[in-house]
Design brief:
It is a single chain. The chain is mainly β. Helices cover 7% and strands 41% of the residues. The strands form six sheets. It has a nine-stranded antiparallel beta sheet, with no helix packed on it. The longest helix is centred in the middle third of the chain and has 10 residues. The protein is globular, with a radius of gyration of 24 Å.
Length: 319
């Protein structure tokens, strides 16, 4: 690797590094942020022979053969090299056979510390050696791998191989702070989206009236459902293994004027009453009382607030 640039700053310091002509890394260390950002740019991969490009992070953690990957950004699943918990594995692919989908994060840990990499997209990842984490960044193959696709993987654009760019966020701390990757993920993955359009009047209901002081409670959805109702989804972001506990959430206090005493719970998709999804509601509503609802670790619940159309229209801001 070649050190190309070092840019110290008041709020962020950058280090630029290159590996040849087609792999570049930028490391960013922010003031008052608990993570290091790594921006990677790969491509076009040369046409001399097929390549699979990975980025491997090495630590001094004694993680052994165990690592953890997320399931659709939710619960962390335990992975063990060359092992499957539900059947006897005959491992014939020691590298590919130990790769797993990483939707948002991959972790390793020992008895004292942990290392977590958050990703900006779904990637394949693994920990093939103790203390290491690796993620697949890019591939370009000129022969079929006989895995069922029936063609080589040689994507091009404008006559050249693809260039791909992305970011990883590295979080290293003691085990007591292991669950903090959830808070970091919320900050990184739920950033505001800036959209540009023409002279079209678009109405939206502002979130400024929402009062949520519990860092383990996330308002996933808050939007108008139809002419007379709002749909909201709340989630408990913490799993039991990360210290997650039951959360009591008062919908009336959280949503204020948006709340309606005439509210009902829906299934997760919001397309039918909860009674049509959960046959026995005894345990489901065990911790509910009035406008206060209970959320178990990693649970998501969906509610509809019904108002008059006139009142809903009064909530809308027009941009």
């Amino acid at each position: 690797p070649i050190l190309k640039n070092y840019l110290p700053g008041e709020f962020v310091t950058e280090v630029w590094q290159s590996f040849g002509d087609w792999v570049n890394l930028v490391y960013r260390v922010y003031v008052n942020k608990p993570y290091i950002e790594v921006e990677w740019t790969v491509g076009p991969i040369p046409m001399d022979h097929g390549r699979e490009v990975i980025l491997r992070y090495s630590t001094d953690l004694d993680s052994g053969k165990t690592f953890y990957t997320d399931s659709n950004g939710r619960e962390m699943l335990r992975r063990v090299l060359d092992y499957q918990p539900t059947w006897s594995l005959n491992q014939t692919e020691p590298v590919a056979g130990n790769y797993y989908p990483v939707n948002s994060r991959i972790s390793i840990k020992d008895m004292e510390s942990h290392f977590t990499v958050l990703t900006d997209r779904s990637q394949g990842g693994s920990s093939l050696s103790s203390g290491q984490v690796e993620l697949m960044l890019h591939r370009r193959m000129y022969k079929d791998d006989f895995k069922g696709v029936g063609e080589p993987l040689n994507e091009t654009q404008f006559g050249h191989g693809l260039i791909t760019r992305g970011r990883h966020w590295l979080f290293y701390s003691d085990l007591d702070s292991y669950g903090d990757h959830r808070d970091i993920g919320l900050d990184l993955f739920y950033q505001p989206v800036v959209s540009v359009g023409g002279d079209v009047e678009v109405g939206n209901i502002p979130r400024s009236g929402i009062q949520n002081t519990n860092k383990d409670l996330n308002v996933v959805t808050f939007e108008r459902f139809d002419e007379t109702s709002l749909i909201v989804r709340l989630e408990n972001i913490r799993s039991k293994s990360e210290g997650g506990k039951m959360i009591s959430a008062d919908l009336k206090k959280i949503f204020g004027a948006y709340f309606s005493e005439n509210f009902k719970e829906l299934g997760l998709a919001g397309d039918r009453p909860i009674e049509k999804v959960v046959k026995d509601l005894t345990d489901h509503i065990k911790y509910d009382s009035g406008s206060v609802i209970g959320l178990k670790p990693l649970q998501i619940r969906t509610f509809a607030f019904t108002h008059s159309e006139e009142l809903l229209n009064s909530f809308v801001n027009y941009a």
